[in-house]
Amino acid sequence: MFSTLPDTPQDFMQWTWTDIEPYFQDLAARPLTASNVTAWLADWSRLNELIDETYARLYVATTQDTTDEAAEQRYHAFLEHIYPHAQTADQELKQRLLASGLKPNGFAIPLRNMRTEADLFRQENLPLLTQERKVTSELNRILGTQTVEWQGEERTLLQMEKVYTDPGRDVRERAWRMVSQRQLSDRDAVNELWGRYMDLRRQIAHNAGFDNYRDYRWRQLLRFDYTPDDCRTFHQAIEDVVVPAAARIYERRRAQLGVDTLPPWDLDVDPTGQPALHPYDTVAELEQKGSAIFRHVDPQLGDYYDTMRREGLLDLENRKGKGPGAYSTGFEVTKRPFIFMNAVGHNTEVRTLLHESGHAFHAFEAFKLPLYHQRFTPMEFNEVASMAMELLAAPYLQASDGGFYAPDDYRRARIQHLEKIVRFWPYMAVVDAFQHWVYENHEAASNPENCDARWADLWDRFMIGIDYGGLEPDKRNGWHRKRHIHRTPFYYIEYGLAQLGAVLVWRNALHDQPQAVADYRRALALGGTVTLPVLYETAGVRFAFDAATLGEAIDLIENTLDALYE
Known about the structure:
Blueprint: H1 9-12, H2 17-29, H3 37-64, H4 69-81, H5 83-100, H6 108-120, H7 126-144, E1 147-150, E2 153-156, H8 157-160, H9 169-185, H10 187-207, H11 213-220, H12 228-257, H13 283-297, H14 299-310, E3 314-317, E4 327-331, E5 336-343, H15 348-366, H16 379-392, H17 407-440, H18 442-445, H19 448-462, H20 472-476, H21 483-487, H22 493-511, H23 513-524, H24 532-538, H25 547-565
Parallel strand pairs: 3-5
Antiparallel strand pairs: 1-2, 4-5
Helix pairs in contact: 2-5, 3-4, 4-7, 5-6, 7-10, 10-11, 12-17, 12-25, 13-14, 15-16, 16-22, 16-23, 17-19, 17-22, 17-25, 22-23, 22-25, 23-24
């Protein structure tokens, strides 16, 4: 009967659960043996692909226009009337495969993941998970409609970030304070959603038999290769090795600017007084130059990127009502990735395009694996795919290679990127340590005032060199501005671990760029068929948390920065 499934996700989107359910029933009733398990898995994969791409496309539509009530209704209808039923039916198939004792080739890691998912699954959690997604939609709507009036024009908060590079210090301060006040004005609304998140997550964890949501989420994220204690080791390594390096960067910036202290509106302006980097004028130019860069990195990667351009799989420009941030998602049926961005002409958006394209290249490579469940790579390596691409593409960013920068601007862009990496690790530690505290202290953290205090304490521990004197409410509200904390809890340590892996990939590339790129692509193509340490090893690097390895990365970055500053 699987020959009657729709060929396209657009057709499948019109189906109801009544249309879909017989296909799950067929899989559940079909005899399962060593001789037919491959065909059974292929049919299951096809059904999962259709459901997955439907979910992805409906979600994408809600982020492309957060004011589109019809799109939100379609997404919510899917979450309410199809997705929970599909999850329940899918779970039964996982349990059936596990009970069979069959071990298909290339399926050891998916089977391990299925065992964990089977252990976690609770029917009573399905409506709670749907409610959680609805809270996230409400949060997206609040954040997506945040604008300010600036120089007679309504601007999104992302568009305002460009003002932070203005040479006029009073202009930057006024813009920063205006944006912060706009964010503070939604404080009560975001806090109300926070309370709903916390109640839902506590109940979800308890339903699954866990004392706290952190332990539940750890298993849900399929973290088999490291523990919360490893995260604490990483936090300490960052405090010991990176915080002093970041403080040196901040002190050099303070001295270059000739100011007594370094408030937050002084972090993005060029410290030498040069105008902000303006790498492109139009989104079309951003797209085109991206193509030239990727073809230098690897011709096949360039082909992947150009496929996305031809097929309309890049939504890069910022506009009112568009959801915040940037992401890459995959369309499982069509075997294509999709990139969402908010480009306004800021220099950091070049890196954002490189980053999200790294995710897209990962999808292209993993889509070659035959089965749906083989394609799910740990997030800790997904981010190596993206962050390493930022560094692998760096040699080709100059205009002479078809890229964005004249020589002096290229030097400035490289300094900004490398300093950003160093500055990121302490911030990542704040975010991750905050989340551990939240879900280890659920009752206290359900009170937003306590979250404010904890965030401020962690900020003072890790973010040495930035002056928030007189800005205590703004500093304490910082956890509101980090969307991961609200929407995807515990999805942030991945960036820190992967950034270390990416720097080590870059170190390999400095010695042999073609080999480093080949190792990188070989690791991407493994998808989720091997363990996390093996993925790193295939990419030519180590999966590590320790101060010594982190110190190697900091030494490389600081030595490179010294050469760029000469």
